[in-house]
Amino acid sequence: MNKLSDYAEIVRKNVPMSSLTWLRIGGPIEYLANPRSEKELLGLLSACALEGVQVRALGDGSSILASDVGVPGMAIQLDAEPFCQIEFDSPFVVAGAGAKLGRLATATASAGLAGLEGMVGIPGSVGAALVSNATTLDAAIEQCVESARVATLSGEILELSKDELVFGRRVSNLSGAIALSVKFKLVPDDAEELSKRLQKIWIARKKTRPELDQGGFARMFKNPGAQRAADIIEEIGFPGTRIGGASVCESDPNLIVASDGCSSDDVKRLVALIEKQANERAGVELERELVIW
Ligand SMILES: Cc1cc2nc3c(=O)[nH]c(=O)nc-3n(C[C@H](O)[C@H](O)[C@H](O)COP(=O)(O)OP(=O)(O)OC[C@H]3O[C@@H](n4cnc5c(N)ncnc54)[C@H](O)[C@@H]3O)c2cc1C
């Protein structure tokens, strides 16, 4: 029987969430685990289930707003090498959940495989992108997914075919599981053209990002359908608005910037205010991208 104490080598206690999230906000998480293999992950999951420890998957932390007082339970981050591999068997590509989505977009474009190049510049891991069905204005990751391997929180592995995966607008039927890897089916195309296209998209996306010395940042809302959340926030006059240490980015109003001393409450208050105003003044119900821990 696995015990949590058997995993001391890969579990750290009281790690500040500010060091794990793009917003650079948040008190300590009770446990942070970085398993080195699938076997270790499964053992850890069953130990957590046995000891009643709440488990959450942590990717690159680009969408997480963590509480200032800390987060109970265990975050599991699949950043060890076996979880970050990208393997080609054209036109198929298998990517580990811990691989960065941007790296996958670049690698597939360079290999002359089309379908994921539009995902360049979307922060985060392949696992989170799968579970949240990462989407650009004209494409969604679901369009290329062939199958996925996931671990249940009780420590069981499931292989799900395309027919068993259900995707909706920025959701899937995988929430509550830990994505391990994804098999994509892509379309052979000209590598040079794909790389040029990717570069253009990357430059356009990078242009609207705040400078890193302005503070941490994150995207507040999902785009409602074909509309951009940024345009709605602009329309209701929020760019530059500040509450405490949190402000709305001027170059991309769907980004919230957390300057030094910003609290999780500052972010929550500003996000709630925008939500309310978007509803009252633009008649739009914005749905949060930020995941609150
Ligand atoms: C500047 C900027 C631009 C963005 N543009 C886009 C965009 O165009 N399109 C878009 O879709 N998103 C966009 N996002 C949002 C963000 O990129 C996505 O939500 C991304 O999928 C988050 O990945 P992550 O690894 O950082 O996840 P995290 O922030 O670590 O986690 C987010 C959620 O995913 C879950 N999760 C993480 N890893 C796994 C796993 N292995 N298995 C199961 N669940 C997991 C977490 O539990 C959490 O609920 C943008 C964000 C920023 C900051």
Which features does this protein show?
binds flavin-adenine dinucleotide; five-stranded antiparallel β-sheet; 3 domains; 6 helices; 293 residues; Uridine Diphospho-n-acetylenolpyruvylglucosamine Reductase, domain 1; Uridine Diphospho-n-acetylenolpyruvylglucosamine Reductase, domain 3; Uridine Diphospho-n-acetylenolpyruvylglucosamine Reductase, domain 2; alpha+beta; single chain; four-stranded mixed β-sheet
Short account of what is shown:
This protein is α+β, with helices and mostly antiparallel strands and 293 residues long.
Structure notes:
The chain has 6 helices and 19 strands. The protein has helices at residues 38-51, 101-110, 126-131, 191-207, 229-235, 264-282, and strands spanning 11-16, 28-33, 55-58, 64-65, 71-77, 86-89, 92-96, 113-114, 145-151, 157-161, 167-168, 171-172, 178-185, 187-188, 216-219, 242-243, 246-248, 255-258, 291-292. The protein has a 5-stranded antiparallel sheet with strand order 6-7-13-9-10. It has a 4-stranded mixed sheet with strand order 1-2-5-3, covered by helices on one side. A 4-stranded antiparallel sheet has the order 15-18-17-16. It is globular. The structure holds flavin-adenine dinucleotide (FAD). The site of flavin-adenine dinucleotide (FAD) has 32 residues, from β3, α3, β13 and β15. Flavin-adenine dinucleotide binds at residues 22, 56-64, 78, 97, 122-125, 127-129, 131-132, 134-136, 178-179, 209, 218-219, 255, 289, 291.
